[in-house]
Amino acid sequence: MQAILHPTDENPSPPGAECITLVTSDKVHLRAMKAVPENARGTVVILGGRGDFIERYFETARDLIDRGFAVAMLDMRGQGGSQRPKRQPFRDRTRSFAGFDEDVRTLMDDLVIRSCPGPYYALGHSTGAHVLLRLLRKNKWFARAILVSPLVEIIYGPWPRPVAWLLLNTMWFTGLANVFLPGVRKQPMGRADFPGNPLTSDRQRWNRDSTTLEVAPQLGLGGPTFGWLGAARQSIARIRRMKKPTAPVLIVAAGADRVVGNEGIRQLARKVPGVALTFIPDARHEILGERDMIRRQFLAALDSFLPA
User: Fold this and answer.
1) CATH number of residue 198's parent domain
2) Distance (Å, whole) CA 187 – CA 180
3) Does residue 69 contact residue 206 with C-beta atoms inside 8 Å?
4) Backbone angles phi, psi at 48, to 5 degrees
5) Which residue from 11, 127, 253, 293 could staple onto 50, CB 3.0 to 4.6 Å apart?
6) Which domain holds residue 33?
7) 285-295: average pLDDT
8) Is residue 64 part of a domain?
9) Phi, psi torsion values for 183, nearest 5 degrees
10) How does DSSP assign the chain, residue by residue?
11) Is residue 166 part of a domain?
12) pLDDT value, residue 162
């Protein structure tokens, strides 16, 4: 599988970007990217959310390079340009988050530690931020970590939680875990889906990412399945037993988030030593894809947290 990036006029690649194929210990092919400027003062590893792809973080990568950092990132298994099933490739077949741990271990061992300057910092969004929390229970790769809108509480929408759990368990144990959740899209969202979306209030950035999917539709992913939901629920239960991360953590949460539960984020920050929390009041879930005013607030938090 040849790994390539898909820049557009609206969304150019970060300077010096290189696309690399990595292979995990369980033989999954991953698409990764690195960009290493001269005299970099460290490397920021970026982990996107469920259904994300590297190109969505080009702008953030350029922001970090402007600040003197090298950048490394990957598409985790089953999404973006990484390996996924040939049949129904837009269907999420996640049954466990343990594979994502292996993806990040491969990125660190086979790319970052070998060819990117330290110290290493981490920046994760949503499910990517959740995976970072999993890894920060034991791994000591990162000097600091920033979690953006982390997945630590699931919003079940109109379903009462006991009903949602009963339905989830029924689908899981009857072999129907690959069925899409009720009401979610079976295809990736595009530019026509902007009105009323819960992710961003910035139409320009929404259209920019939609253009990428029009150029490279194979990067997209449909909505979550019962399998993904069950895996997320199991992993969240483990995260809630976390004692202390191996590195200082800053959570930047979205005040207007309708995708993950902010109360769970607050509880995590109160309970776990070494975790700081700040909110951007008007931001929707995807802070890094939000309006300039919101992104500036995020970048100010990043600048204050990472060493100058």
Assistant:
1) 3.40.50.1820
2) 11
3) no
4) -80, 175
5) 127
6) 18-305
7) 98
8) yes
9) 85, -5
10) --------SSSPPPTT-EEEEEE-TT--EEEEEEE--TT-S-EEEEE--TT--GGGGHHHHHHHHHTT-EEEEEPPTTSTTS---SSSTTS-----SHHHHHHHHHHIIIIIHHHSPSSEEEEEETHHHHHHHHHTTT----SEEEEES--SSB--TTS-HHHHHHHHHHHHHTT-TTSBPTT--SS---GGG-TT-SS-S-HHHHHHHHHHHHH-GGG-----BHHHHHHHHHHHHHHTT----SS-EEEEEETT-SSB-HHHHHHHHHHSTTEEEEEETT--S-GGGS-HHHHHHHHHHHHHHS--
11) yes
12) 77
Q: What is the pTM of this model?
A: 0.96
Rounded CA separation 269/249 (Å)? 9
pLDDT of 247 above 80: yes
Place of tokens 């340009």: 81
Q: How far is CA 281 from CA 9, 25, 226, 287, 298, in A?
A: 31, 42, 31, 11, 11
Max CA separation in the chain (angstroms): 55
Residues near 179 by beta carbon (within 8 Å), at least 6 away in sequence: 171, 225, 226
What percent of the chain is modeled with pLDDT above 70?
99
Tell me, yes or no, whether 45 lies in a domain: yes
Rounded to 5 degrees, what are φ and ψ at 34? -135, 150
Instruction: Report residue 276: phi and psi, to 5°.
Output: -105, 155
Which tokens sit at 105?
């271990």
What distance, in Å, lies between the first and last C-alpha atoms of the chain?
A: 39
Tokens at 19, concatenated? 């696309």
| Number of domains within the chain | 1
5 lies in a domain?
no
| Residue 259, token pair as written in the block | 């995708």
